């Protein structure tokens, strides 16, 4: 990544990853994108408090609504694509990201997944215990589980890697796992239209 990289942060939420990246890489600029204007307002306040607002552009939009001519060195999509429960829409989301990256541009993506070989229920049990230890009550935990069942498209890690490859990100490398959250990085194919 160049010292002056331009990074697309999709589903930026409150800006946690953007602020962390900005601290480590003081020359990077960011496009903060979230379809929720109230969430983006929180991000703007946090970015201003961190003293990096001059390095950020904010877009209350979806990725397909961004100008196609602007090309980024990298993109992040942290806990975003899991909310696209239709596989075709999910592939389309990553295709839209690929089309906004420079050739060889880097994608970092993380999502909830299903665990292999019958480990899913065990890891889900660990997550529930962690939530209890952090202060969540049983009603909150059951509410989150019900929301996940309705609103989250859980895929096995291998299916997620195949989906990324189909969208123009071959050879995705899983670099992190925390319970059911898996994270990958992948480079955009060079033969996509620039």
Q: Topology as H/E string?
A: EHEHEEHEHHEHEE
Mean pLDDT value:
92
Stretches with pLDDT under 50, minimum 5 residues = none
Helix content: 25-40%
Radius of gyration: 17 Å
Beta strand % = 25-35%
The termini sit apart by 18 Å
- State the major sheet: 8 strands, mixed
Structural class: alpha/beta
Number of strands: 8
Helix count equals 6
Spatial shape: globular
Helices and strands, with pairings:
Layout: E1 6-10, H1 16-24, E2 29-33, H2 37-49, E3 56-59, E4 72-78, H3 87-99, E5 101-114, H4 120-133, H5 138-151, E6 155-156, H6 157-166, E7 173-178, E8 181-187
Parallel strand pairs: 1-2, 1-4, 2-3, 4-5, 5-6
Antiparallel strand pairs: 5-8, 7-8
Describe the protein.
By secondary structure, the protein is α/β, with parallel strands linked by helices. 38% of the residues lie in helices and 26% in strands. The chain is built from six helices and eight strands. The protein has helices spanning 16-24, 37-49, 87-99, 120-133, 138-151, 157-166, and strands at residues 6-10, 29-33, 56-59, 72-78, 101-114, 155-156, 173-178, 181-187. Strands 1, 2, 3, 4, 5, 6, 7 and 8 form an eight-stranded mixed sheet that branches. Strand 7 (173-178) and strand 8 form a beta hairpin. The chain is globular and about 45 Å long. The model has no long low-confidence stretch (mean pLDDT 92).
